[in-house]
Amino acid sequence: xxxxxxxxxxxxxFFCFWSVCVSSDFGRGLGFVEMLFKCNILAFIGGxxxxxxxxxxxxxxxxxxxxxxxxxxxRHEVLSVRLxxxxxxxxxxxxVYVYKFADLSLLNKHDTYNNPRGLxxxxxxxxxxxxxxxGTLAGQVKPANFxxxxxxxFL
Length: 155
Fold this sequence. Notes:
Blueprint: E1 2-5, E2 9-13, E3 20-25, E4 30-35, E5 41-46, E6 57-62, E7 67-73, E8 80-83, E9 87-92, E10 95-100, E11 106-111, E12 121-122, E13 129-134, E14 141-146
Antiparallel strand pairs: 1-2, 2-3, 4-5, 5-6, 6-7, 8-9, 9-10, 10-11, 12-13, 13-14
């Protein structure tokens, strides 16, 4: 699937047919959209001149039910979000927060160098979680591995 979002409209396309499979007109702006693999769960951040949601909130949307089922609120503007079945990574200017998807409890907080583009990657491999984000110094990349226990963290 490929999803495109415009100032007021979100469209999801299938690659092989290039036909619209989902089209939603929200009437107001979205600044960032992330899809959980190829399923119905999306993460929205408001944007544009008339944001649909505040820029400091991540809204988790169920497209089957066409409604938000959860939200995360921050003190600073959210720049990007990464989703996988068990974790959510939320990027603000100088921090990456990692949450457990099931109950939205905070697992880890990673301080970063100034990150205005919201750079962050979260692996899709179900057997291990690897997060890559900017380090605390310019030019550094901080890889983080989460193993068997959610409390185990290695740099």
